[in-house]
Amino acid sequence: MAIDDKTRTELEAAAFRRLLDHLKTRTDVQNIDLMNLAGFCRNCLSNWLKEAADAQGVSLSKDESREAVYGMPYETWKAKHQGTATPEQHEAMKKVPPHSH
User: Fold this and answer.
1) Could you read off the pLDDT of 45-69 as tens digits, one per residue?
2) What is the reported pTM?
């Protein structure tokens, strides 16, 4: 199936929005768990969004990109949903290969 660039971009954008909506409903899933299992987390997504904006010359601050991903200011999300990482989670994090933001 051949998809033109505009349609592909629209589909990718819709899938990205759905991923963000999903992550916003799964506040029980901690960023450290995402990093340990998938090698990326909500912060990575917000960094990638900011990098894409920067590449396009679009003004988007780090706080704005995080709010777009988290659905609220980052500090609010942390206060409401971020738990304390266990020693096991920290140990697992050491084994995650480095990634680029």
Assistant:
1) 999 999 999 999 999 999 999 999 9
2) 0.86
SS3 letters for the chain?
CCCCHHHHHHHHHHHHHHHHHHHHHCCCCCHHHHHHHHCCCHHHHHHHHHHHHHHHCCCCCHHHHHHHHHCCCHHHHHHHHCCCCCHHHHHHHCCCCCCCC
Single-letter code of the amino acid located at 19: L
CA dist., res. 99 & res. 101, Å (int):
7
The percentage of the chain sitting over the pLDDT mark of 90, rounded to a whole number, equals 82
In the chain, the N- to C-terminal Cα span, in Å, equals: 32
Measured torsion, CA atoms of residues 21, 43, 47, 44, in degrees rounded to the nearest 10: -90
CA atoms within 13 A on the CB side of 1: 3
Q: Are 25 and 43 in contact (CB under 8 A)?
A: no
| Amino acid making up residue 18 | R
